[in-house]
Write a structure and sequence with these properties.
alpha/beta, Rossmann fold, six-stranded mixed beta sheet, five-stranded parallel beta sheet, 16 helices, globular, binds 2-acetamido-2-deoxy-beta-D-glucopyranose, transferase, GDP-fucose protein O-fucosyltransferase, transmembrane, transmembrane helix
Protein backbone atom coordinates (compact mmCIF):
# COMPACT_ATOMS: atom_id res chain seq x y z
CA UNK A 1 0.00 0.00 0.00
CA UNK A 2 2.84 2.35 0.83
CA UNK A 3 4.47 1.28 -2.42
CA UNK A 4 1.52 2.77 -4.26
CA UNK A 5 2.12 5.96 -2.37
CA UNK A 6 5.75 6.13 -3.50
CA UNK A 7 4.68 5.40 -7.02
CA UNK A 8 2.11 8.17 -6.96
CA UNK A 9 4.75 10.56 -5.65
CA UNK A 10 7.02 9.39 -8.41
CA UNK A 11 4.45 9.93 -11.08
CA UNK A 12 3.75 13.43 -9.88
CA UNK A 13 7.43 14.22 -9.87
CA UNK A 14 8.31 12.80 -13.24
CA UNK A 15 7.61 16.15 -14.82
CA UNK A 16 9.31 18.21 -12.15
CA UNK A 17 12.54 16.33 -11.86
CA UNK A 18 13.09 16.58 -15.58
CA UNK A 19 12.95 20.37 -15.33
CA UNK A 20 14.85 20.63 -12.08
CA UNK A 21 17.81 18.78 -13.38
CA UNK A 22 18.12 20.88 -16.49
CA UNK A 23 18.21 24.02 -14.40
CA UNK A 24 15.21 25.84 -15.82
CA UNK A 25 13.75 28.82 -14.03
CA UNK A 26 10.81 28.82 -11.65
CA UNK A 27 8.38 29.80 -14.41
CA UNK A 28 8.98 26.61 -16.33
CA UNK A 29 8.80 24.60 -13.14
CA UNK A 30 5.43 26.11 -12.31
CA UNK A 31 4.07 24.99 -15.63
CA UNK A 32 5.43 21.53 -15.11
CA UNK A 33 3.88 21.22 -11.69
CA UNK A 34 0.49 22.19 -13.02
CA UNK A 35 0.78 19.35 -15.44
CA UNK A 36 2.11 17.08 -12.74
CA UNK A 37 -1.19 17.41 -10.90
CA UNK A 38 -2.84 15.65 -13.81
CA UNK A 39 -0.47 12.76 -14.10
CA UNK A 40 -2.34 9.49 -13.70
CA UNK A 41 -1.44 7.25 -10.76
CA UNK A 42 1.59 5.22 -11.57
CA UNK A 43 0.70 1.87 -13.06
CA UNK A 44 4.10 0.77 -14.21
CA UNK A 45 3.69 2.12 -17.69
CA UNK A 46 5.12 5.55 -16.96
CA UNK A 47 8.62 4.16 -17.03
CA UNK A 48 10.07 3.04 -20.29
CA UNK A 49 12.42 0.13 -20.78
CA UNK A 50 16.05 1.09 -20.18
CA UNK A 51 17.56 3.06 -23.03
CA UNK A 52 21.20 2.78 -24.10
CA UNK A 53 23.94 4.30 -21.94
CA UNK A 54 24.78 7.92 -22.41
CA UNK A 55 21.44 9.67 -22.16
CA UNK A 56 22.79 12.11 -19.60
CA UNK A 57 20.78 15.25 -19.06
CA UNK A 58 17.21 15.68 -20.19
CA UNK A 59 15.65 18.98 -21.05
CA UNK A 60 12.13 20.24 -20.61
CA UNK A 61 11.95 22.10 -23.84
CA UNK A 62 13.64 21.35 -27.12
CA UNK A 63 15.57 24.62 -26.89
CA UNK A 64 16.73 24.28 -23.29
CA UNK A 65 20.47 24.19 -22.73
CA UNK A 66 21.93 20.71 -22.27
CA UNK A 67 24.70 20.15 -19.79
CA UNK A 68 27.95 19.54 -21.63
CA UNK A 69 29.23 15.97 -21.72
CA UNK A 70 32.62 17.19 -20.47
CA UNK A 71 31.01 18.76 -17.45
CA UNK A 72 29.28 15.54 -16.45
CA UNK A 73 32.19 13.23 -17.26
CA UNK A 74 33.91 13.49 -13.89
CA UNK A 75 30.94 13.85 -11.61
CA UNK A 76 30.28 11.26 -8.91
CA UNK A 77 27.74 8.71 -10.05
CA UNK A 78 24.88 7.54 -7.84
CA UNK A 79 23.67 4.20 -9.10
CA UNK A 80 20.10 3.17 -8.28
CA UNK A 81 20.53 -0.56 -7.82
CA UNK A 82 16.73 -0.77 -7.48
CA UNK A 83 15.95 0.55 -10.96
CA UNK A 84 12.18 0.81 -10.44
CA UNK A 85 12.59 3.83 -8.20
CA UNK A 86 14.88 5.83 -10.49
CA UNK A 87 13.19 9.22 -10.15
CA UNK A 88 13.98 10.62 -13.58
CA UNK A 89 12.40 10.29 -16.91
CA UNK A 90 13.11 9.36 -19.63
CA UNK A 91 16.51 7.72 -19.93
CA UNK A 92 18.84 5.89 -17.57
CA UNK A 93 21.07 8.70 -16.39
CA UNK A 94 20.55 12.26 -15.35
CA UNK A 95 22.70 15.07 -14.08
CA UNK A 96 21.34 16.34 -10.77
CA UNK A 97 22.12 19.68 -9.15
CA UNK A 98 22.33 19.61 -5.37
CA UNK A 99 23.27 22.20 -2.73
CA UNK A 100 26.91 21.13 -2.63
CA UNK A 101 27.33 20.45 -6.32
CA UNK A 102 26.31 18.13 -9.14
CA UNK A 103 26.20 14.34 -9.47
CA UNK A 104 24.94 11.94 -12.08
CA UNK A 105 22.06 9.70 -11.05
CA UNK A 106 21.91 6.51 -13.06
CA UNK A 107 20.24 3.17 -13.17
CA UNK A 108 22.62 1.63 -15.66
CA UNK A 109 24.13 -1.33 -13.86
CA UNK A 110 27.12 -1.30 -16.20
CA UNK A 111 28.33 1.63 -14.07
CA UNK A 112 28.58 -0.67 -11.06
CA UNK A 113 32.37 -1.14 -10.97
CA UNK A 114 33.22 2.32 -12.30
CA UNK A 115 35.49 4.36 -10.05
CA UNK A 116 33.19 7.33 -10.48
CA UNK A 117 30.30 5.33 -9.04
CA UNK A 118 30.45 6.46 -5.43
CA UNK A 119 27.13 5.22 -4.10
CA UNK A 120 24.65 2.43 -4.75
CA UNK A 121 21.06 3.30 -3.88
CA UNK A 122 18.74 0.52 -2.74
CA UNK A 123 15.03 0.38 -2.12
CA UNK A 124 14.42 -1.63 1.04
CA UNK A 125 11.40 -3.55 -0.18
CA UNK A 126 13.33 -4.76 -3.24
CA UNK A 127 16.59 -5.52 -1.48
CA UNK A 128 17.45 -9.22 -1.52
CA UNK A 129 20.52 -10.42 0.35
CA UNK A 130 20.89 -13.23 -2.18
CA UNK A 131 21.13 -10.70 -5.01
CA UNK A 132 23.31 -8.05 -3.37
CA UNK A 133 26.05 -6.71 -5.65
CA UNK A 134 29.25 -8.44 -4.56
CA UNK A 135 32.09 -8.00 -4.01
CA UNK A 136 31.37 -4.85 -2.14
CA UNK A 137 33.69 -2.14 -3.44
CA UNK A 138 35.53 -0.13 -0.81
CA UNK A 139 35.05 3.22 -2.51
CA UNK A 140 31.25 2.90 -2.68
CA UNK A 141 28.65 3.85 -0.07
CA UNK A 142 25.47 1.85 0.16
CA UNK A 143 22.40 4.03 0.61
CA UNK A 144 19.03 2.67 1.65
CA UNK A 145 15.60 4.17 1.10
CA UNK A 146 13.05 2.23 3.10
CA UNK A 147 10.07 4.25 4.19
CA UNK A 148 7.68 1.30 3.86
CA UNK A 149 6.51 -1.16 6.44
CA UNK A 150 9.23 -3.41 7.87
CA UNK A 151 7.07 -6.40 7.02
CA UNK A 152 8.26 -6.02 3.43
CA UNK A 153 11.78 -6.93 4.41
CA UNK A 154 12.67 -8.02 7.92
CA UNK A 155 16.35 -8.21 6.98
CA UNK A 156 16.52 -4.48 7.65
CA UNK A 157 14.96 -4.68 11.12
CA UNK A 158 18.10 -6.26 12.53
CA UNK A 159 21.52 -4.82 13.26
CA UNK A 160 23.46 -6.98 10.76
CA UNK A 161 21.05 -6.02 7.98
CA UNK A 162 20.84 -2.29 8.58
CA UNK A 163 24.56 -1.97 9.23
CA UNK A 164 25.25 -3.09 5.68
CA UNK A 165 24.27 0.43 4.71
CA UNK A 166 26.10 3.68 5.11
CA UNK A 167 23.24 6.10 4.59
CA UNK A 168 19.54 5.63 5.24
CA UNK A 169 16.23 7.30 4.61
CA UNK A 170 13.65 5.49 6.73
CA UNK A 171 10.57 6.35 8.75
CA UNK A 172 12.79 6.69 11.82
CA UNK A 173 13.74 10.15 13.07
CA UNK A 174 17.22 8.71 13.70
CA UNK A 175 17.91 7.84 10.09
CA UNK A 176 20.20 10.06 8.05
CA UNK A 177 17.38 11.45 5.96
CA UNK A 178 14.33 10.92 8.17
CA UNK A 179 10.83 10.41 6.81
CA UNK A 180 8.60 9.94 9.88
CA UNK A 181 5.96 12.40 8.66
CA UNK A 182 5.79 11.03 5.13
CA UNK A 183 2.02 10.53 5.45
CA UNK A 184 1.21 13.89 6.98
CA UNK A 185 0.71 16.64 4.37
CA UNK A 186 0.91 19.43 6.93
CA UNK A 187 -0.59 21.10 9.99
CA UNK A 188 -3.57 22.34 7.99
CA UNK A 189 -4.46 18.73 7.22
CA UNK A 190 -4.89 18.16 10.95
CA UNK A 191 -6.86 21.36 11.47
CA UNK A 192 -9.51 20.35 8.95
CA UNK A 193 -12.82 20.86 10.81
CA UNK A 194 -14.68 17.91 12.28
CA UNK A 195 -18.33 17.32 11.38
CA UNK A 196 -20.72 18.53 14.10
CA UNK A 197 -21.48 15.97 16.78
CA UNK A 198 -25.21 16.11 16.13
CA UNK A 199 -24.61 14.77 12.61
CA UNK A 200 -22.82 11.79 14.04
CA UNK A 201 -25.55 11.31 16.63
CA UNK A 202 -27.95 11.19 13.69
CA UNK A 203 -25.99 8.38 12.04
CA UNK A 204 -26.05 6.47 15.28
CA UNK A 205 -29.82 6.57 15.17
CA UNK A 206 -29.53 4.94 11.75
CA UNK A 207 -27.75 2.06 13.42
CA UNK A 208 -24.10 3.01 13.04
CA UNK A 209 -21.64 1.75 15.66
CA UNK A 210 -19.44 4.23 17.55
CA UNK A 211 -16.28 2.58 16.23
CA UNK A 212 -15.06 2.00 12.68
CA UNK A 213 -12.62 -0.62 11.46
CA UNK A 214 -11.48 -0.71 7.86
CA UNK A 215 -8.73 -3.15 7.11
CA UNK A 216 -8.22 -5.50 4.20
CA UNK A 217 -4.68 -6.68 4.93
CA UNK A 218 -5.55 -9.21 7.57
CA UNK A 219 -2.64 -11.37 8.62
CA UNK A 220 0.12 -8.92 9.54
CA UNK A 221 3.05 -8.88 12.00
CA UNK A 222 1.19 -6.56 14.39
CA UNK A 223 -1.54 -9.22 14.55
CA UNK A 224 -4.14 -6.49 14.90
CA UNK A 225 -7.21 -8.58 14.11
CA UNK A 226 -6.68 -10.76 17.16
CA UNK A 227 -7.01 -7.63 19.29
CA UNK A 228 -9.93 -6.14 17.40
CA UNK A 229 -11.83 -9.44 17.54
CA UNK A 230 -11.54 -9.34 21.31
CA UNK A 231 -12.51 -5.68 21.48
CA UNK A 232 -15.63 -6.40 19.45
CA UNK A 233 -16.93 -8.52 22.30
CA UNK A 234 -17.25 -5.39 24.42
CA UNK A 235 -18.18 -2.58 22.06
CA UNK A 236 -19.89 -2.34 18.68
CA UNK A 237 -17.50 -1.97 15.78
CA UNK A 238 -18.56 -1.59 12.15
CA UNK A 239 -15.96 -3.41 10.07
CA UNK A 240 -16.04 -2.83 6.32
CA UNK A 241 -12.73 -4.22 5.10
CA UNK A 242 -11.97 -7.86 4.41
CA UNK A 243 -10.74 -8.34 7.97
CA UNK A 244 -13.47 -9.15 10.50
CA UNK A 245 -16.02 -7.78 8.08
CA UNK A 246 -19.51 -7.37 9.47
CA UNK A 247 -20.86 -4.62 7.18
CA UNK A 248 -20.86 -3.60 3.54
CA UNK A 249 -19.90 -0.15 2.36
CA UNK A 250 -23.09 1.63 1.30
CA UNK A 251 -22.58 1.86 -2.45
CA UNK A 252 -21.26 -0.50 -5.07
CA UNK A 253 -18.72 2.13 -6.09
CA UNK A 254 -17.21 2.32 -2.62
CA UNK A 255 -17.20 -1.45 -2.26
CA UNK A 256 -15.22 -1.58 -5.45
CA UNK A 257 -12.43 0.74 -4.30
CA UNK A 258 -9.33 -0.59 -2.62
CA UNK A 259 -10.67 1.22 0.38
CA UNK A 260 -7.77 1.31 2.77
CA UNK A 261 -5.59 3.40 0.49
CA UNK A 262 -7.95 5.63 -1.35
CA UNK A 263 -8.39 9.32 -0.71
CA UNK A 264 -11.74 9.16 -2.44
CA UNK A 265 -13.89 12.09 -1.18
CA UNK A 266 -17.04 9.98 -1.02
CA UNK A 267 -15.29 7.38 1.07
CA UNK A 268 -13.76 10.02 3.35
CA UNK A 269 -17.18 11.61 3.86
CA UNK A 270 -18.54 8.21 4.78
CA UNK A 271 -15.74 7.44 7.22
CA UNK A 272 -16.16 10.78 8.94
CA UNK A 273 -19.57 9.65 10.23
CA UNK A 274 -17.72 7.62 12.86
CA UNK A 275 -16.46 9.12 16.11
CA UNK A 276 -13.72 6.54 16.71
CA UNK A 277 -11.50 4.84 14.15
CA UNK A 278 -9.48 1.78 15.01
CA UNK A 279 -6.03 2.66 13.72
CA UNK A 280 -3.58 -0.19 14.04
CA UNK A 281 -0.40 -0.23 12.00
CA UNK A 282 0.57 -3.45 10.27
CA UNK A 283 3.87 -3.55 12.15
CA UNK A 284 5.19 -1.96 15.30
CA UNK A 285 8.30 0.19 14.96
CA UNK A 286 9.31 3.46 16.53
CA UNK A 287 8.23 6.33 14.27
CA UNK A 288 6.41 4.06 11.81
CA UNK A 289 3.17 6.01 11.38
CA UNK A 290 0.94 5.91 8.34
CA UNK A 291 -2.28 7.33 6.99
CA UNK A 292 -4.10 5.02 9.42
CA UNK A 293 -3.16 7.50 12.12
CA UNK A 294 -3.39 10.84 10.31
CA UNK A 295 -6.52 10.27 8.25
CA UNK A 296 -8.94 9.89 11.19
CA UNK A 297 -7.45 13.03 12.69
CA UNK A 298 -8.02 14.87 9.42
CA UNK A 299 -11.62 13.65 9.45
CA UNK A 300 -12.19 14.72 13.05
CA UNK A 301 -12.41 11.18 14.43
CA UNK A 302 -10.41 9.97 17.41
CA UNK A 303 -7.85 7.32 16.42
CA UNK A 304 -7.75 4.32 18.71
CA UNK A 305 -4.14 3.63 17.92
CA UNK A 306 -1.52 0.97 18.17
CA UNK A 307 1.66 1.42 16.18
CA UNK A 308 4.75 3.47 16.79
CA UNK A 309 5.53 3.24 20.52
CA UNK A 310 6.91 6.79 20.27
CA UNK A 311 3.76 8.19 18.66
CA UNK A 312 3.17 10.68 21.49
CA UNK A 313 6.17 12.67 20.40
CA UNK A 314 4.41 13.51 17.14
CA UNK A 315 0.90 14.28 18.33
CA UNK A 316 -0.49 17.82 17.92
CA UNK A 317 -1.08 18.00 21.67
CA UNK A 318 -1.03 15.52 24.52
CA UNK A 319 -4.74 14.70 24.31
CA UNK A 320 -5.57 13.81 20.74
CA UNK A 321 -5.52 10.03 20.38
CA UNK A 322 -6.41 6.96 22.43
CA UNK A 323 -3.50 4.58 22.84
CA UNK A 324 -4.54 0.96 22.97
CA UNK A 325 -1.53 0.03 25.05
CA UNK A 326 -2.57 2.40 27.84
CA UNK A 327 -5.36 -0.04 28.68
CA UNK A 328 -4.98 -3.28 30.56
CA UNK A 329 -7.48 -5.13 28.43
CA UNK A 330 -9.77 -4.74 25.42
CA UNK A 331 -12.64 -4.60 27.88
CA UNK A 332 -11.14 -1.62 29.73
CA UNK A 333 -10.57 0.13 26.43
CA UNK A 334 -14.15 -0.54 25.37
CA UNK A 335 -15.41 0.96 28.63
CA UNK A 336 -13.37 4.09 28.04
CA UNK A 337 -14.58 4.50 24.46
CA UNK A 338 -18.12 4.07 25.68
CA UNK A 339 -17.56 6.72 28.35
CA UNK A 340 -16.25 9.22 25.78
CA UNK A 341 -19.03 8.31 23.41
CA UNK A 342 -21.58 9.35 26.01
CA UNK A 343 -19.76 12.51 27.17
CA UNK A 344 -19.60 15.07 24.41
CA UNK A 345 -17.53 17.46 26.45
CA UNK A 346 -14.89 14.83 27.18
CA UNK A 347 -14.96 13.68 23.58
CA UNK A 348 -14.48 17.18 22.20
CA UNK A 349 -11.33 17.61 24.27
CA UNK A 350 -9.75 15.11 21.88
CA UNK A 351 -10.39 17.50 19.01
CA UNK A 352 -9.10 20.63 20.74
CA UNK A 353 -6.03 20.63 18.49
CA UNK A 354 -8.27 21.75 15.63
CA UNK A 355 -8.86 25.11 17.32
CA UNK A 356 -6.60 28.08 16.52
CA UNK A 357 -3.37 27.60 18.45
CA UNK A 358 -4.46 24.09 19.37
CA UNK A 359 -1.37 22.42 17.95
CA UNK A 360 0.99 22.90 20.85
CA UNK A 361 3.63 20.31 19.98
CA UNK A 362 6.55 22.45 18.83
CA UNK A 363 8.55 19.39 17.81
CA UNK A 364 5.81 18.43 15.36
CA UNK A 365 5.49 21.95 13.99
CA UNK A 366 9.25 22.33 13.62
CA UNK A 367 9.57 18.95 11.93
CA UNK A 368 6.91 19.88 9.41
CA UNK A 369 8.52 23.23 8.77
CA UNK A 370 12.05 21.96 8.46
CA UNK A 371 11.46 19.12 6.05
CA UNK A 372 12.37 20.12 2.53
CA UNK A 373 10.09 17.67 0.74
CA UNK A 374 6.33 17.69 0.42
CA UNK A 375 3.49 15.19 0.64
CA UNK A 376 1.18 15.26 -2.37
CA UNK A 377 2.55 18.71 -3.05
CA UNK A 378 3.70 19.18 -6.61
CA UNK A 379 5.36 22.48 -5.70
CA UNK A 380 7.86 20.85 -3.36
CA UNK A 381 10.47 18.23 -4.21
CA UNK A 382 9.62 14.68 -3.24
CA UNK A 383 11.75 12.70 -0.88
CA UNK A 384 13.18 10.47 -3.60
CA UNK A 385 14.90 13.42 -5.22
CA UNK A 386 15.64 14.83 -1.78
CA UNK A 387 17.39 11.65 -0.70
CA UNK A 388 19.29 11.51 -3.96
CA UNK A 389 20.66 14.99 -3.31
CA UNK A 390 21.41 14.09 0.29
CA UNK A 391 23.56 11.19 -0.95
CA UNK A 392 25.13 13.37 -3.65
CA UNK A 393 26.15 15.99 -1.09
CA UNK A 394 27.47 13.33 1.25
CA UNK A 395 29.61 11.85 -1.51
CA UNK A 396 30.92 15.23 -2.64
CA UNK A 397 31.95 15.94 0.95
CA UNK A 398 33.61 12.52 1.20
CA UNK A 399 35.52 13.15 -2.05
CA UNK A 400 36.70 16.51 -0.73
CA UNK A 401 37.83 14.91 2.52
CA UNK A 402 39.72 12.24 0.55
CA UNK A 403 41.45 14.93 -1.48
CA UNK A 404 42.45 16.82 1.65
CA UNK A 405 43.81 13.58 3.06
CA UNK A 406 45.85 12.89 -0.08
CA UNK A 407 47.16 16.46 -0.29
CA UNK A 408 48.29 16.34 3.34
CA UNK A 409 50.43 13.26 2.59
CA UNK A 410 48.49 11.39 5.21
CA UNK A 411 48.73 14.00 7.99
CA UNK A 412 45.01 14.58 7.87
CA UNK A 413 43.23 11.23 8.37
CA UNK A 414 40.85 9.63 5.88
CA UNK A 415 37.18 10.39 6.54
CA UNK A 416 35.59 8.18 9.20
CA UNK A 417 33.30 5.49 7.80
CA UNK A 418 29.64 6.32 8.19
CA UNK A 419 27.57 3.26 9.11
CA UNK A 420 23.81 2.98 9.72
CA UNK A 421 22.55 1.96 13.16
CA UNK A 422 19.80 -0.33 14.45
CA UNK A 423 17.90 2.78 15.52
CA UNK A 424 17.35 3.60 11.84
CA UNK A 425 14.79 0.76 11.69
CA UNK A 426 13.69 0.36 15.24
CA UNK A 427 11.33 -2.63 15.08
CA UNK A 428 11.15 -5.00 18.06
CA UNK A 429 10.20 -8.67 17.75
CA UNK A 430 6.56 -8.97 16.65
CA UNK A 431 4.21 -9.90 19.48
CA UNK A 432 0.64 -11.22 19.36
CA UNK A 433 -2.07 -8.59 19.09
CA UNK A 434 -3.74 -10.10 22.12
CA UNK A 435 -2.53 -12.67 24.59
CA UNK A 436 0.86 -14.27 25.05
CA UNK A 437 2.95 -15.91 22.37
CA UNK A 438 3.10 -19.12 24.44
CA UNK A 439 -0.69 -19.30 24.54
CA UNK A 440 -0.95 -19.29 20.75
CA UNK A 441 -0.75 -22.70 19.04
CA UNK A 442 2.26 -23.43 16.85
CA UNK A 443 0.10 -23.80 13.77
CA UNK A 444 -1.32 -20.27 14.16
CA UNK A 445 -0.77 -18.49 10.86
CA UNK A 446 0.66 -15.37 12.47
CA UNK A 447 3.20 -17.42 14.40
CA UNK A 448 4.09 -19.47 11.36
CA UNK A 449 4.56 -16.52 9.07
CA UNK A 450 5.79 -13.49 10.90
CA UNK A 451 7.87 -14.84 13.70
CA UNK A 452 9.69 -17.05 11.21
CA UNK A 453 10.11 -14.22 8.78
CA UNK A 454 11.43 -11.91 11.41
CA UNK A 455 14.19 -14.27 12.49
CA UNK A 456 14.98 -15.27 8.93
CA UNK A 457 15.67 -11.59 8.36
CA UNK A 458 18.35 -11.68 11.03
CA UNK A 459 20.05 -14.73 9.52
CA UNK A 460 19.99 -13.22 6.06
CA UNK A 461 21.74 -10.09 7.28
CA UNK A 462 24.33 -12.20 9.05
CA UNK A 463 24.89 -14.38 6.00
CA UNK A 464 25.40 -11.41 3.72
CA UNK A 465 27.71 -9.72 6.23
CA UNK A 466 29.77 -12.90 6.39
CA UNK A 467 29.98 -13.07 2.59
CA UNK A 468 31.15 -9.47 2.39
CA UNK A 469 33.66 -10.08 5.14
CA UNK A 470 35.06 -13.12 3.31
CA UNK A 471 35.03 -11.27 -0.01
CA UNK A 472 32.81 -14.03 -1.32
CA UNK A 473 31.37 -13.07 -4.67
CA UNK A 474 29.29 -16.04 -5.77
CA UNK A 475 25.71 -15.22 -4.91
CA UNK A 476 24.74 -18.85 -5.26
CA UNK A 477 26.68 -19.54 -2.07
CA UNK A 478 24.37 -17.27 -0.09
CA UNK A 479 22.04 -20.12 0.72
CA UNK A 480 24.92 -22.22 2.05
CA UNK A 481 25.89 -19.40 4.38
CA UNK A 482 22.29 -18.99 5.49
CA UNK A 483 21.93 -22.70 6.10
CA UNK A 484 25.10 -22.76 8.15
CA UNK A 485 23.95 -19.90 10.37
CA UNK A 486 20.54 -21.46 10.76
CA UNK A 487 21.99 -24.81 11.80
CA UNK A 488 24.30 -23.17 14.33
CA UNK A 489 21.40 -21.32 15.89
CA UNK A 490 19.34 -24.46 16.13
CA UNK A 491 22.15 -26.28 17.91
CA UNK A 492 22.38 -23.50 20.45
CA UNK A 493 18.69 -23.54 21.23
C1 LIG B 1 -0.71 18.08 28.69
O1 LIG B 1 -1.04 19.41 28.37
C2 LIG B 1 -1.59 20.13 29.45
C3 LIG B 1 -2.06 21.47 28.93
O2 LIG B 1 -1.17 22.03 28.03
C4 LIG B 1 -0.53 20.28 30.53
O3 LIG B 1 -1.03 20.97 31.62
C5 LIG B 1 -0.09 18.88 30.95
O4 LIG B 1 0.97 18.98 31.85
C6 LIG B 1 0.35 18.07 29.76
N1 LIG B 1 0.59 16.71 30.19
C7 LIG B 1 1.65 16.04 29.80
C8 LIG B 1 1.73 14.63 30.30
O5 LIG B 1 2.52 16.49 29.08
C1 LIG C 1 30.08 1.63 4.72
O1 LIG C 1 29.67 0.68 5.66
C2 LIG C 1 30.50 -0.43 5.78
C3 LIG C 1 29.88 -1.37 6.80
O2 LIG C 1 28.70 -1.92 6.28
C4 LIG C 1 31.89 0.00 6.22
O3 LIG C 1 32.74 -1.12 6.27
C5 LIG C 1 32.42 1.00 5.21
O4 LIG C 1 33.66 1.49 5.65
C6 LIG C 1 31.48 2.15 5.04
N1 LIG C 1 31.91 2.98 3.93
C7 LIG C 1 31.93 4.28 3.99
C8 LIG C 1 32.38 4.98 2.76
O5 LIG C 1 31.62 4.93 4.96
C1 LIG D 1 -4.01 -26.39 14.78
O1 LIG D 1 -3.85 -27.52 15.55
C2 LIG D 1 -5.00 -27.88 16.33
C3 LIG D 1 -4.69 -29.06 17.22
O2 LIG D 1 -3.35 -29.38 17.24
C4 LIG D 1 -6.17 -28.18 15.40
O3 LIG D 1 -7.32 -28.48 16.15
C5 LIG D 1 -6.42 -26.99 14.52
O4 LIG D 1 -7.42 -27.27 13.55
C6 LIG D 1 -5.16 -26.55 13.80
N1 LIG D 1 -5.42 -25.30 13.10
C7 LIG D 1 -5.05 -25.09 11.86
C8 LIG D 1 -5.35 -23.73 11.32
O5 LIG D 1 -4.49 -25.93 11.19
C1 LIG E 1 37.85 -9.41 -3.42
O1 LIG E 1 37.57 -10.13 -4.59
C2 LIG E 1 37.78 -9.39 -5.78
C3 LIG E 1 37.25 -10.18 -6.94
O2 LIG E 1 37.32 -11.56 -6.71
C4 LIG E 1 39.26 -9.07 -5.91
O3 LIG E 1 39.51 -8.36 -7.09
C5 LIG E 1 39.68 -8.26 -4.69
O4 LIG E 1 41.04 -8.01 -4.71
C6 LIG E 1 39.31 -8.97 -3.41
N1 LIG E 1 39.52 -8.06 -2.29
C7 LIG E 1 40.15 -8.44 -1.19
C8 LIG E 1 40.24 -7.39 -0.11
O5 LIG E 1 40.61 -9.52 -1.04
Amino acid sequence: MAADHVRAVLAALVMLSVCEASGLGPAAQGEASEEAAWVEPWDGSVFQPPSPLGAVGVSCQPGAPRPEQEETADLPVLLWWSPGLFPHFPGDSERIECPRGACVASRDRRMRADLRTRALLFYGTDFRASEAPLPRLAHQSWALLHEESPLNNFLLSHGPGIRLFNLTATFSRHSDYPLPLQWLPGAAYLRHPAPPLHERAEWRRYGYAPVLYLQSHCDVPADRDRYVRELMRYIRVDSYGKCLQNKQLPTARLQDTSTATTEDPELLAFLSRYKFHLALENAICNDYMTEKLWRPMHLGAVPVYRGSPSVRDWMPNNHSIILIDDFDSPQKLAEFIDFLDKNDEEYMKYLAYKQPGGITNQFLLDSLKQREWGVNDPLLPNYLNGFECFVCDHELARLDAEKVHAASFGDIPVPEPHIAQSSHMDCPVPTPGYGKVTEIPENDSWKEMWLQDYWQGLYQGEALTAMIHNNETQQSKFWDYLHEIFMKRNQNL
